[in-house]
Write a structure and sequence with these properties.
heterodimer, A: mainly alpha, Arc Repressor Mutant, subunit A, 3-stranded antiparallel beta sheet, globular, B: mainly alpha, 2 domains
């Protein structure tokens, strides 16, 4: 994903595994960096563990691309470290995520048609 | 959840070690996200110690170190590719513009003259861009500029008219030695300002030595620019190299982060 903001979500595809995981983590609400790490780890059953370098490299590029933004609000103000920054999807980011999921869905459907992917097997998630 | 005191100390030590390792990342990323990365790592350390104790913390480090090195390399190469591309394009355009002058003025330049001049101008510009990126202050950039200008003029004048006698006078080859002293000095100095100052002083001494040898052995004395010309020209270059050395020394005193060891 480049540093320049673009108006077409398709221009940013395919997303890197780290970027896709960050967007999925933010799809149901805003989170801080550590929260994103935990969400990804739990969602993937521990198969994907984003290190700080990978996570913030992805956050930097997603922010530069206008896909995510910092949130001024603090969902858990009382118990939270005030130095933490929260991130959320922008409306453009939502479009990028939808376009990427659609692209992956197309790949999975093509794989199923060719018998390369058993329909009954649960899809493995992660990078 | 309360963490035992020993664990808290291990978390503190790990966080400090991680913070110091963050220096491998480009400054841009470090300034923007360094604190958050360190906080995240601290949280991961706490979690590992609570869940699995010391082995968990060791495993976290074993996972984090390769990730840190890999992502730092990736971030740096991304940054280098982005910045260098623009700079190199700018230098190429500037070189082409400069070379238009002899073309439009219809100077009696051959193709090899254009190629030599183009290579020299482009090479000097590129060296400035690459070296000035190490700069944390204006004095360092000025020092780089003066040193490169001196090297550029030294080569240009030698190729055009020669400093000791005619351009084909063998004694002029001694100036290759002057440039070799400067270039090897820069590599030994590894771009650190105080060491760069010494490298430029050594270059100035080499320049002065060439003049002394030329005068002692009467090299090029029978043809222009003559003894006085040799003295003036070499004095001019010595003063440029000394000036650059003083600027490097001043840049070092300002104590702004400079050099490959701190920021690439």
């Amino acid at each position: 994903m480049g540093g320049e903001r673009t108006s077409d979500p398709g221009d940013l595809l395919p997303l890197t595994p780290a970027a896709l995981n960050v967007l999925l983590a933010l799809a149901d609400g805003e989170r801080h960096g550590y929260g994103i790490m935990l969400e990804v780890r739990e969602r993937t059953g521990g198969r994907v563990r984003l290190g700080p370098g990978t996570l913030y490299g992805a956050i930097k590029r997603l922010k530069e691309g206008g896909v995510i933004e910092e949130s001024g609000e603090r969902p858990d103000d009382e118990a939270d470290d005030e130095r933490r920054r929260y991130y959320r999807l922008t409306s453009f980011g939502g479009e990028v995520l939808a376009a990427e999921v659609e692209r992956l869905d197309g790949l999975v459907r093509a794989a199923r048609r060719k018998g390369a992917f058993p329909a009954s097997k649960p899809s493995p998630e992660g990078a | 959840m309360a963490t035992p005191r020993g664990d808290e100390r291990a978390v503190g030590v790990s966080e400090r070690a991680y913070r110091s390792l963050l220096r491998v990342y480009p400054r841009e990323l470090r300034n923007e996200y360094g604190d958050e990365m360190a906080h995240c790592f601290r949280d991961l350390c706490r979690e590992e110690l609570e869940d699995r104790g010391g082995p968990g913390l060791a495993a976290l480090w074993a996972h984090t170190l390769p990730e840190l090195l890999y992502t730092a390399l990736k971030e740096r190469s991304n940054m280098l590719a982005r910045n260098t591309y623009r700079s190199v394009l700018g230098i190429a355009v500037a070189t082409a513009c400069i070379l238009l002058t002899p073309l439009i003025a219809n100077w009696a330049w051959t193709l090899s003259d254009f190629v030599t001049a183009g290579t020299l101008i482009f090479g000097t510009g590129l060296a400035f861009v690459l070296l000035a990126r190490k700069a944390g202050n204006v004095a360092y950039r000025m020092a780089v500029g003066v040193a490169l200008a001196a090297a550029f003029l030294l080569v240009w004048i030698n190729l055009a008219v020669g400093i000791i006698g005619e351009p084909d006078e063998v004694a002029n080859l001694m100036y290759i030695g002057v440039l070799a002293v400067g270039i090897s000095g820069v590599f030994v100095a590894r771009f650190r300002p105080h060491e760069m100052a010494r490298a430029l002083m050594a270059t100035a001494l080499a320049q002065a030595l060439v003049a002394v040898i030329a005068l002692v052995f009467g090299l090029g004395s029978g043809s222009p620019p003559g003894i006085l010309g040799i003295l003036i020209l070499n004095g001019f270059f010595v003063s440029l190299f000394v000036g650059s050395a003083l600027l490097f020394r001043y840049a070092g005193r300002e104590r702004t982060p400079v050099g490959a060891g701190q920021e690439g």
